[in-house]
Write a structure and sequence with these properties.
There is one protein chain. With about 375 residues, the chain is α/β, with parallel strands linked by helices. Helices cover about 50% and strands about 15% of the residues. The chain is built from 17 helices and twelve strands. The strands form two sheets. The chain has a seven-stranded parallel sheet with strand order 4-3-2-1-5-6-7, with helices on both faces. A five-stranded mixed sheet has the order 11-10-8-9-12, with helices on one face. α4 runs parallel beside α5. The protein is globular, with a radius of gyration of 20 Å. The protein starts with a strand and ends with a helix. The structure holds magnesium ion. The site of magnesium ion has 4 residues, from α7.
Length: about 375
């Protein structure tokens, strides 16, 4: 079987782990893209010899071109370049691990080109779910979730026939570094505190999103789209050890869960080899050594991002777009030391409240609501 891969976002955490798998199983990597980390991108280009590389930021693209002038790789840049990369003819599957809203358009381009998608870009479904899912149906392509929770749910659903009824999706959360903190304790936390995740090694944006629980809110929105269930059929539960990656409760009361180490190679590999299961390169989980799994209800009152996202998907339309856009702006401001940790949740809620539900008919609608939410944040700090 496969695979020839287009990898969008090759220098990030998911991107480099995808390349570990490509290296191990000899998958052909046709396309690489990165935002601006051209040092790593050059190493990857020399190792995997892709035909096309996109460096999103133009000034880095120009430098990159000079650096790889001795190779035959074609170098493009910007959103047009990223879309050209996403629709590259010879690849079987597009792994989209771009960070942020910028990931939506390439996903739509890849679908248009008839490519299967391994999706790690949350914003694609959070903001564009109402466009992406119909497009997938129309083109008859496959969408494989890469996020550990959605991969887990996908694996649990594979355990039952398509006629099964989902009683509940049980979406697990680690709770992040501030689990159990009161609002008062959260007034004093710093950027460095927020960047220390107990279980997972991830990029900066998603690590902050884990600390605020925005990440889980975005995942509820994604799950609602991906598995076509309403938000009240999705229960969020804190599972502190990050061993149970999510579960599905079926109509007969049986709960099927997916359990394993906190290693993103596993869901990435499954998305690339589905329905096969190839041998793992990582450590295996010893349940006896792990000893226990502890479960808690999330604190919706203190972690406002989570409750805001759940409200947003219940209302639908442009509400999730606003929540996401406001969060991207607020997290950037928090990382720059311009707002406090608790302000992230307050701004996300206020910006989402300010957005009308509306209707999504095009990417333009999404871009407008996204911009409005960001501007709301900038003008309210
Ligand atoms: Mg996740």
């Amino acid at each position: 079987m496969i695979k020839s891969i287009t990898l969008l976002g090759s220098t990030g955490s998911i991107g480099t782990q995808t390349l570990d798998i490509a290296r191990r199983f000899n998958f052909k990597v046709n396309v690489l893209t990165a935002n601006q980390n051209i040092d790593l991108l050059e190493k990857q280009t020399r190792e995997f010899i892709p035909e096309l590389v996109c460096v999103f930021e133009e000034k880095y693209a120009n430098e990159f071109k000079l650096r790889v002038a001795d190779t035959s790789v074609k170098v493009v840049s910007g959103i047009d370049g990223l879309c050209e990369a996403a629709s590259f003819e010879k690849s079987d599957i597009v792994v989209n691990s771009v960070v942020g809203m910028v990931g939506l358009k390439p996903t739509l381009e890849a679908i248009k080109a008839g490519k299967d998608i391994a999706l790690a870009n949350k914003e694609t479904l959070v903001t564009g779910g109402e466009l992406v899912l119909p497009a997938i149906k129309e083109k008859g392509v496959n969408l494989f979730p890469v996020d550990s929770e959605h991969s887990a749910i996908f694996q649990c659903l594979a355990a039952a026939p398509p006629s099964r009824k989902i009683h509940k999706i049980i979406l697990t959360a680690s709770g992040g570094p501030f689990f159990g903190y009161t609002k008062d304790m959260l007034t004093k936390v710093t950027v460095a505190d927020a960047l220390k995740h107990p279980n997972w090694n991830m990029g900066r944006k998603i690590t902050i999103d884990s600390a605020t629980m925005m990440n889980k809110g975005l995942e509820v929105i994604e799950a609602a789209h991906l598995f076509n269930v309403s938000a009240d059929k999705i229960d969020v539960i804190v599972q502190r050890e990050s061993l149970l990656h999510s579960a599905v409760e079926f109509d007969d009361g049986a709960i099927i869960a997916q359990i394993g180490t906190a290693d993103m190679h596993v869901p990435i590999q499954y998305a690339l080899t589905y329905p096969e299961r190839y041998e793992t390169q990582g450590e295996r989980l010893s349940l006896a050594k792990a000893g226990k799994m502890t479960f808690y209800e999330p604190d919706y009152e203190t972690f406002k991002c989570l409750s805001t996202c759940i409200d947003a998907i219940k209302q639908g339309g442009l509400k999730p777009v606003a929540a996401n856009g406001a969060n991207e702006a607020a997290v950037a401001l928090f990382l720059e030391g311009k707002i406090s940790f608790l302000q992230i949740g307050e701004l996300v809620k206020a910006a989402t409240d300010a957005q009308k539900v509306g209707k999504i008919t095009s990417v333009y609608d999404i871009d407008c609501a996204d911009r409005a939410a960001r501007e709301f944040v900038y003008s309210n700090i």
